[in-house]
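Board notes, transcribed. Complex of a protein with s-citryldethia Coenzyme A.
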Amino acid sequence: MEAPATETAKLAFAGKTLELPVIAGTEQEKAIDIAALRDKTGAVTLDLGFGNTASCLSAITFLDGERGVLRYRGFPIEQLAEYATYSETAYLLIYGNLPVKRELEQFTSRLADRSGLPEGMEDFFDHLPKGIHPMAVLFSAVAALSGYYPELTHPNPTREEIDSIILTLLAQIPTIAAYSYRKGNGLPVIPPRRDLSPTTANFLHMMFGPAGADGKPDEVVVSALRKILILHADHEQNCSTSTVRLVGSSRANAFVSISSGIGALWGPLHGGANQAVIEMLEKIHKDGGNFSKYVALAKDKTSGFRLMGFGHRVYKNFDPRSRILKSSCDQVLERLGVRDPLLDLAKRLEEAALKDDYFVSRKLYPNVDFYSGIILRAIGIPTDQFTVIFALGRLAGWLAHWREMLESPGFRIGRPRQIYTGSTERRFVPLAQRG
Ligand code: SDX
């Protein structure tokens, strides 16, 4: 994976002029390569929150925040959400191309072979604090899973071992999520079934048991979950994916690298926003639906209140996923015969915000989390499981980036610099003299 230097950037600093190479990606994004900067100038760059810093070269996902474009390995998200299965999408993200029939059958069969938890893992869920959040369970269970696969935890896995790690995590994390839900609610676990699609129908079966007359989950519900998982499958170097890469860059094993991504995703500014959106909408609904009051609160810096599900570091026009989910809300709720007052409220809140200069001037639009919770509620997912569903979708992206990093020629441990602003040198004062 290369990005050729196409031109140079001149930097005049400390009486010198430095020529730095400028590289271009396949979508003509430009980056100034500052690898030689500190050696040549003694200075580093400062970029709080990494808003202007590329951490890697990647061929997995392209997004254009200004044009609202999102493509997985070149395929527009709109097409994948409409036509692909989650397994196809996961295979595409991880291996680079859509699988042919034989490849997909082999991939899904291998996932089915591995979807049961290892002997003894089920007891893990019986020794957790009561009421523990499902993301805390997922975070710890995925790290603990490494104890059952010591042969997959050494720092230099072969390509076969990488494939085995990917299949194990893709197959078992949905089972962990479902078992956590069942055990956390005092329900007997429901083992996975081989005859259901691995991460969608099989997950719903393990969560809620046999549904329709044929004992399979409702097709409308399966399709809604499929679309949600695909829309959440990857998003280039977001907070949690960057975390997976940074932890993996120390050659920590994939189990703890993915577990670290789960931890980062839980934050309400990131994947935890989908739960926070519903909690916000419920609060507004209980408060008589007075959304104008909350729009005003969101604009008041002293309130500490944010319009959850609004704003994005990259999308400054619209989040294409939010558009797909908004129209999906109407379809899914209608086909399930569900009326949710929070959907009407969400639409009115969006309309009010998009007419308000505070949001328009800051380019704050609904993001992927604004409508996803409405659909998850409609298909019966409990609110505290919303971010777990986000993690089930994002798992394919995390694994794709972990594999790409391990195989990239420039692979080295991630170690950012800093600018020190603390005390300059001072001498130790014995306690007796400190007063
Ligand atoms: C995800 O990176 C990804 O790709 C993430 C993601 C993925 O798929 O992985 O897309 C998933 O995490 C989506 C985002 C989910 N989070 C939320 O919905 C939480 C609410 N939104 C924010 O807190 C915020 O918008 C972020 C975290 C999403 C982005 O934060 P930034 O880029 O650091 O922007 P900022 O906090 O610097 O805000 C810029 C301005 C500030 O006002 P000023 O200082 O300029 O006056 O916009 C304001 C902020 O106060 N602002 C908001 C706001 N979001 C930003 N004001 C009110 N409500 C909001 N939601």
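The chain has 17 helices and six strands. The pocket of s-citryldethia Coenzyme A is lined by residues 49, 235, 238, 269-271, 273, 298, 306-314, 362, 364, 367-369 (CB under 6 Å).
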